[in-house]
Amino acid sequence: FFFEMRAMLVLFFCLCLLSQPALSNVATQHRMGFSAPFNEVGPGGERKIPEWSTTNDTQVMQNFVRLTPNRQFKRGGLWSDGLVEADQFSAVFKFRISGPGRTLFGDGLALWFVQGSSVRGSNQGSFYGFKEDFVGFGVIFDTFKNQESSRTHKDVRLVLNDGTRSIDSMVDEQLGCDANMRYHEGRADFTAFNATRVSLSYKQTTAENAALTIGIDESNSNAW
Prior knowledge:
- Helix content is 3%, strand content 41%.
- By secondary structure, it is mainly beta.
- Strands 2, 3, 5, 6, 8, 13, 14 and 15 form an eight-stranded mixed β-sheet that branches. A seven-stranded antiparallel β-sheet has the order 4-7-1-9-10-11-12, with no helix packed on it.
- Strand 5 (59-60) and strand 6 form a beta hairpin.
- It is globular.
- It starts with a strand and ends in a 7-residue tail after the last strand.
């Protein structure tokens, strides 16, 4: 899975994912995640996160990951090199969306869980950084309400696809909720510790059905 965003400043702090393979016990659970500080350095002098790859404008800093700088037409992604080979898993990730603008800002951030052994490179698309004919699900965080889609806008949206659905059909389902996730850096009470947390729990129940639970902690205050 991966994180992808466009035209928005995001400071990404940590992710922890715990998966349980099918027909396995708790002792064999596999953990894939990361947190600062990021001290590993690549051959070109850039910082890197083991088992994860960055794309486009994303930068790994010592204490955070910046998916994009706060400028127009920027996009970036953080991709897991490994697969979640499990029918049950949970994830918690912590991030900050912020910028100096009061009204005009941002576009979207997405967390994708999609089918395929390799989803990087040529599969990047225009639907929140990914192709629209994906197989799997995505959780989209959208801080900008476009005028043409204000009727169906959700700050947090779940999209599902079997590879055949159009963007309009996924968006029209309106699976999601509203949440105050963006921080205005000009506020007197703004600090570097402002953040949002998202929890996700997935469980495959049958060959064709699964249960997915998503929680939002808007201000990292344990108020889910």
